[in-house]
């Protein structure tokens, strides 16, 4: 089945007792058993729920995984994944990571003795140099946030496979519409389904998809044992969101490309970061591993200051000032004072994150309205 059909049909069946086409929200904590050792596949809802199962089968189908385990948030999914490892194990990850991932690795798992190296993964030489005898996993995020750097997934997988190291990709920014890491040899895909998969900024969720038995067993064990489960209503909302993933992503990418072009040609713009622009350093890799270039655009202003960026954002009317991304509505944010506000200015600057850097999550509105809104904001600075 092709991807645009899979988002609607993968692993989905009408509900057996009623014939309901859409999976019901099974709002229950427990299930009747015919005998102490006989049940219909479910015993207690921390372990499993039919609405959750429908969501898991759908995500597994989209990522070409044998299985998927759904979690209550992207952070809960990442937490479960890292609990596969033991004190002394070493994980290599990018230095341009989602802030919540960095916090989880350094403030929860480092104190328990798991070691992390954070390297610039745009060069796979840096990844190779960081490998030690204890390296158990390489954690990739691509495109990165907010600079939209691209990591060559195939090159990192090649390094890892030669040495029996697992690889994981946080596929939140791309979504399976744009990129299917398991097909490139990656062992596990992690999602914050809160973003593009859910797609409507109305639910928090996460997932691990994999065809690796040990990874799936660990994910299920962690769900059951540490309890980071999604509720049935949240599973339903995510499932409903995913059905329109393909059409939303198509429009989102189309809008982002036009926004990037418009901003790039504006005299008040500094740099534009969008993997679809030919002079973006990751453009060729993005072309090779992604179907399109995504819905995120970052740019700085010619007069690079925090106050100019604030002034710009005060003057958009459609672009809503908010963290997060991947919803149908266009959002605008200022990493230096929001998501990356706790990073000292010189560290931020060294990573290429300018004071005026503005990040846009393109929604699916009419492009003429979006461009007019940006024009208005530019006219005020
Ligand atoms: C949002 C996000 C997460 C965390 O997911 P939550 O659902 O907010 O817990 C992880 N990785 C990336 C890339 C994200 O954007």
Radius of gyration: 21 Å
Give the overall shape, derived from the CA principal axes: globular
Order of helices and strands: HHEHEHEHEHEHEEHHHEHEHEEHEH
Total strands: the figure is 12
- Regions with pLDDT < 50 over 5+ consecutive residues? none
What is the spatial order of strands in the main beta sheet? 1-7-6-5-4-2-3
The CATH class label of the largest domain is: Alpha Beta
Backbone structural class: alpha/beta
Strand-helix topology:
Elements: H1 3-9, H2 50-62, E1 67-71, H3 74-82, E2 90-94, H4 99-109, E3 115-119, H5 124-130, E4 135-141, H6 153-162, E5 166-170, H7 175-178, E6 188-192, E7 206-210, H8 213-226, H9 232-242, H10 245-264, E8 269-273, H11 283-289, E9 296-301, H12 306-314, E10 320-321, E11 331-333, H13 345-350, E12 358-361, H14 367-379
Parallel strand pairs: 2-3, 2-4, 4-5, 5-6, 10-11
Antiparallel strand pairs: 1-7, 6-7, 8-9, 9-12, 11-12
Pyridoxal-5'-phosphate binds near residues 98, 141, 170, 172 and 173.
Describe the model.
The chain is an alpha/beta fold. The chain folds into two domains: 240 residues, Type I PLP-dependent aspartate aminotransferase-like (Major domain) (Aspartate Aminotransferase, domain 2); 134 residues, Aspartate Aminotransferase, domain 1 (Alpha-Beta Complex). The strands form two sheets. The chain has a seven-stranded mixed beta sheet with strand order 1-7-6-5-4-2-3, sandwiched between helices. It contains 14 helices and twelve strands. The protein is globular. Helix 2 runs parallel beside helix 9. Helices cover 37% and strands 15% of the residues. Helix 6 links the parallel strand 4 and strand 5. The protein binds pyridoxal-5'-phosphate. The site of pyridoxal-5'-phosphate (PLP) has 16 residues, from helix 3 and helix 4.
């Amino acid at each position: 089945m092709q991807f645009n059909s899979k988002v609607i049909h993968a692993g989905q069946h009408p509900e057996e007792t009623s014939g309901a086409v859409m999976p019901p929200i099974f709002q229950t904590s427990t299930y009747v058993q015919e005998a102490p050792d006989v049940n219909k596949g479910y015993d207690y809802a921390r372990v499993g729920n039919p609405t959750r199962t429908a969501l898991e089968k759908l995500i597994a189908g989209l990522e070409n995984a044998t299985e998927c385990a759904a979690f209550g948030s992207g952070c809960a999914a990442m937490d479960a994944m890292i609990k596969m490892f033991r004190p002394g194990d070493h994980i290599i990850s990018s230095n341009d990571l989602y802030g919540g991932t960095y916090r989880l690795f350094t403030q929860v798992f480092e104190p328990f003795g798991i070691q992390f190296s954070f390297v610039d993964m745009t060069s796979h030489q840096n990844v190779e140099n960081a490998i030690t005898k204890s390296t158990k996993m390489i954690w990739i995020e691509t495109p990165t946030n907010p600079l939209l750097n691209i990591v060559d997934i195939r090159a990192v997988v090649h390094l890892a496979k030669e040495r029996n190291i697992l690889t994981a990709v946080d596929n939140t920014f791309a979504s399976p519409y744009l990129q299917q890491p398991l097909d490139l040899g990656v062992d596990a895909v992690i999602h914050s389904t809160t973003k593009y998969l859910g797609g409507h900024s109305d639910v928090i969720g996460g997932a691990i998809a994999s065809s690796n038995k040990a990874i799936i067993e660990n994910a299920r064990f962690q769900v059951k044992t540490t309890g980071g489960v999604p509720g049935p209503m949240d599973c339903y909302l995510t499932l409903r969101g995913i059905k329109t993933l393909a059409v939303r992503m198509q429009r989102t990418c189309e809008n982002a490309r036009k926004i990037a072009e418009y901003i790039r040609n504006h005299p008040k713009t500094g740099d534009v970061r969008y993997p679809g622009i030919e002079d973006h350093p990751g453009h060729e890799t993005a072309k090779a591993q992604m179907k399109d270039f995504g819905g995120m655009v970052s740019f700085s202003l010619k007069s690079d200051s925090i106050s100019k960026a604030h002034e710009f954002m005060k003057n958009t009317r459609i672009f809503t000032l908010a963290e997060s991304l991947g919803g149908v509505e266009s959002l605008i944010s200022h990493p230096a004072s929001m998501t990356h506000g706790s990073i000292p200015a010189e560290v931020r600057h060294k990573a290429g994150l300018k004071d005026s850097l503005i990040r846009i999550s393109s929604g699916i509105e009419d492009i003429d309205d979006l461009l007019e809104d940006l024009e208005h904001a530019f006219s005020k600075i």
